[in-house]
Write a structure and sequence with these properties.
Elements lengths: L2 H26 L2 H9 L1 E6 L2 E6 H23 L1
Helix pairs in contact: 1-3
């Protein structure tokens, strides 16, 4: 991997961090995101045992990471 490819990778990661930061600033104060994430969470309580499964949060993280990684791979392959 040469310096030009490393530079593209760092640039893409930086843009991804900025986009995620902007989304957190814009949607961080609203209850919509918190309600969406809590509604899509399964919680199982038992005798001294709790299992929490964040389904919607997992799907959202998967979609965001897929988009970001596809952009990074396309930038590297140019």
């Amino acid at each position: 991997m040469d310096l030009q490819q490393i530079g593209k990778l760092v640039l893409a990661l930086g843009i991804g961090v900025v986009v995620i930061g902007l989304l957190l600033v814009v949607f961080g104060g609203s209850n919509f995101v918190q309600n969406l994430l809590s509604a899509g969470t399964l919680r199982f309580d038992g005798g001294g045992f709790t299992c929490i499964v964040p389904i919607i949060a997992s799907i959202l993280i998967s979609v965001v990471l897929t988009v970001v990684l596809n952009i990074v791979i396309r930038m590297i392959n140019k």
